Amino acid sequence: MRVLLAALLVPCALAVLVGLVTLAPSPGEYAAVAQRAATGQGAPGLGSQTPVDGEVLRAAGESDCTDPNLPAPAPGEGCVAVTVRLTDGPAPGTSILTLVPATPGSPRFAVGDPVVLGWAGGDPADPLTYTIVDFQRGTPLLVLGAAFALAVVLLGRWQGLAALVALGVTLGVLALFVLPALATGSSPVPVALTASGLIVGVVLPLTHGVSARTATAALGTLASLGLIGVLAVVFAALSRLTGLGEEASELAGVLGPGLDLRGLLLAGVIIGALGVLDDVTVTQTSAVWELHRADPATRLNDLYGSAMRVGRDHVASAVNTLVLAYAGAALPLLLLFGLAGRGLGDLLTAEDVAQEIVRTLVGSIGLVASVPLTTLLAAVVVRAVSTSPRSEPA
To answer: Which residues cross the membrane (predicted)?
Structure first.
C-alpha cells in the first residue's frame, strides 16, 4: 500500500516540478514587468508615486476644491483641507496642506491619523506634488498577527508552530511563484494547479508529518482539485464569464491586453477552494484513522459508513462556510444591485454576481466529492497498513 501511494504521488510531484520550471519567470523578467507597471501605465494604489509617511495635524471643514479659503459649492461636493506633517521622504518634518474630496465615498481624516501620501517628484516643499492615498495600518496589523500566532502556538504547541511555518510557505508560494508567473503572462490555470500541488506537497507533511495518513489526505485533495479545475473551466465557458471587474480591468490596464482575465478568475477559484478542501480531506482521513484505532476489527463497509456520517456533518458546515465567505466578500455589490431595483434573475446572472456563484458552486461540488473519495481511500489504506509488518504511526 505504501508503494502504491508513492506510485500515485510521485507523478503529481513530477508534474509540480515541471510546472515550476516551465511557468516560473526569471527574476529579471518579473522585475521588468513590475518596472513597466510602476512607471508606465500607473499601477493600482500609488502607481508611479513614491510613498511618504505623514501625520495629520489639522482637518478643516469642507471648502471649495480649488481654494481651501472658499466655501464648498454644496454639501458633499467640496474638499477638506488637510494639513499633514511629513515623517519621512524627501522633506521630513515639513508640513503641507492638501485637499481631499469630501464625497460620501471618501475617507475622513482626524488629527493624529497616520497616513500615506504619494509624492509625484519635483519640489519636495510644493504641496501640489503630494496626494493622500491611504492610512498607515502596519502597527495594528502586526499586533493582530502576533495575537494570532500566539493563539495558534498556545493551542497547538509544536504542531501549531509547524502550522505557522506552513502558512509562511503558502504565502511564499503565492508571492514568489504565483504572482510573478501571472504577471509575466503564464497561463493562470496551470499556475494555480502547480501552486496548489506544491502547497499540498509541502504544507500537509510539514503540519501533519510524513505518513500514509498524510499521503491519503494529499491524494484526496489533489483529486478533488482536479475536479474543481475541470468544472471551473467548463462552467466559466458555458456561463460566458469574462473575468472583467473593477480590479481586473485596472490590472488589465497595467499589464496590457495579453492578460487572461477569465483564466485569472479560474485560478482564483482553484486557490480559494484549496483552503477549505484540505481541511475536509485531513479531517476525514483523521476520522477514519481514529475509528479504526478504536476498533481495528471493524469491517471496511462499517468503517466507511461511520466516517461518512462524520463527513456529511462536516461537508454541510463547510459548504455553508464557503457560501458565507463569498457572500460576505460580495456584500457591497449585492446591496448595490438590490438598491438598483433589479429582479432576482437579473441579479444572479449579472457578471460580478455570476462569478461568485460559479466560485461557490464549483468549490462546493469539489468539497462534496472529496468526502466519499477521501473516506473510501482512507478506509482502504488504513486497513492495509494496519496489517503490514510495519505499524503505521497515528
So the answer is: 138-155, 162-183, 189-207, 219-239, 259-277, 318-341, 361-382
